[in-house]
Amino acid sequence: MQIEKEKQQINGHHLNGFSIEDIGDDHLFTGLETPMREDAFKLSDSEKKERIAILFEEIMQVMGLDLTDDSLKGTPERVAKMYIDEIFSGLNPKNKPKVALFDNKYQYNQMLIEKNITFYSNCEHHFVPIIGKAHVAYISSGMVIGLSKLNRIVQYYAKRPQVQERLTNQIANELKTILDTEDVAVIIEAKHLCVSSRGVKDDTSETITAYYGGSFNTSEKITELQNYLKS
Ligand SMILES: [Zn+2]
Where does Zn(2+) bind (predicted)? Predict the structure, then answer.
């Protein structure tokens, strides 16, 4: 499959000779799957929160913060809860949105686009926010999906430590699987706070990534899609 080939190319490509700093600052990544350990879900969510709170408190201690201050006291628990229940909840497959499909009753056979889906993710190299908009499109192979589910699929994959290329491909793969079609497109425009607030400190640049699958991968369809996105 095309995806498998891309994965191999990316794997073979990026690792050799790059330091940890290179990988962080150039936002290289190593695969299309989020790198997870086999035992990722051995601990329950509440055990994870307990553990993260202890470790985050340690980070704050090392930085010299006074954890007896009323304002800081609850921060380790707040961060732990936020990590597991909110901003990294997409790591756990149990949080994957349940999707129901419907017959394409209206026989609508053109592209359907859901545009400007706002998402908040986090860069896996620096753990600071990626803020962006996703545009997703598909052409029905006979089944259709509720519009809000397109949004939920974007949010699920955004709520992981991410790199934008992987986010783009993970959303596309999920839509291809659910909708049983290659005719899927995903475009993401995002701002990476690790680029704007630190490092090279470029506040105006944006990163754009795109996936054009099946019949979307023709200049005609790409132009049509881009015209809709502009309007
Ligand atoms: Zn980063």
Answer: 123, 126, 194
Question: Same structural domain for residues 137 and 218?
Answer: yes
One domain, residues 34 and 117: no
123 marked as binding residue: yes
Decide if 107 is catalytic.
Answer: no
User: Whose CA is closest to 109, among 144, 149, 153, 148?
Assistant: 144
| pTM listed for this prediction | 0.87
Tell me how far apart the alpha carbons of residues 107 and 182 are, in angstroms, rounded to a whole number.
Answer: 18
Q: What is d(CA 136, CA 4) in angstroms, rounded to the nearest whole number?
A: 22
Tell me the average pLDDT of the chain.
90
Given a cut of 70, is residue 151 above it in pLDDT? yes
User: How many C-beta atoms lie closer than 10 Å to residue 167's C-beta?
Assistant: 25
Same domain, 134 and 221: yes
Whether residue 135 is annotated as binding a ligand: the answer is no
**125 among known catalytic residues:** yes
The rounded Cα 77 to chain-centroid distance in angstroms is 25
Q: Kindly state whether residues 49 and 154 are assigned to the same domain.
A: no
